[in-house]
TrEMBL record:
Name of the molecule in the record: Glutathione peroxidase
Residues in the signal sequence: none
Organism whose genome encodes this protein: Virgisporangium aliadipatigenens
Record PANTHER family: GLUTATHIONE PEROXIDASE, THIOREDOXIN_GLUTATHIONE PEROXIDASE BTUE
Record-level GO BP terms: cellular response to oxidative stress
Any one GO MF annotation of this record: peroxidase activity
């Protein structure tokens, strides 16, 4: 079973077929609207614009598990992201990324270690996973790694379809 087999919905409550991203690179990010890291939306959108035509899709996954920093409804999240940060990339429903209620998507992601060797639970908002076409999770980056970071950009570029 791969991430493409996972059932998840978008912010409008409609099924979001992850299988539709099978031939693209993904940058999956657990996001929050009221976090000190929230301005990363600007950089994430910039990555989507720069690499989207080459096969990248940024996928935002709202989560309210860290300091209650994503308390809004799906409609409020969508409005905030589009009007404040100009977000055009797809966003999923709000999910849990840790604990007993961890969404199955994150069950598949958290086994991958970041550069410091950390695997397992997500530590904060804006943790990032690079997924190559076909579903291999090729990199994990902590919340402090900005979208402009050279290492993150290199991981994204290396995951882009040929």
């Amino acid at each position: 079973m791969t991430i493409y087999d996972v059932a998840i919905h978008d912010l409008q409550g409609k099924p979001l077929a992850l299988d539709g991203f099978r031939d693209r690179a993904l940058l999956i990010v657990n996001v929050a609207s009221r976090c000190g890291q929230t301005p990363q939306y600007f950089g994430l959108e910039a990555l989507q614009k720069e690499f989207g035509e080459r096969g990248l899709t940024v996928l935002g996954v709202p989560c309210n598990q860290f300091g209650g920093q994503e308390p809004g409804s799906s409609e409020e999240i969508a409005e905030f992201c589009s009007t404040t940060y100009g977000v055009t990339f797809p966003m999923t429903e709000k999910v849990d990324v840790n604990g007993e209620g961890r969404h199955p998507l994150y069950d598949r992601l958290v086994g991958v270690a970041d550069a410091t060797g950390h695997s397992g639970d997500i530590r904060w908002n804006f943790e990032k996973f690079v997924v190559a076409p076909g579903g291999e999770i090729t990199a994990r980056f902590g919340h402090r790694v900005q979208p402009e970071d050279e290492g993150l950009r290199a991981a994204v570029e290396s995951a882009l379809p040929a």
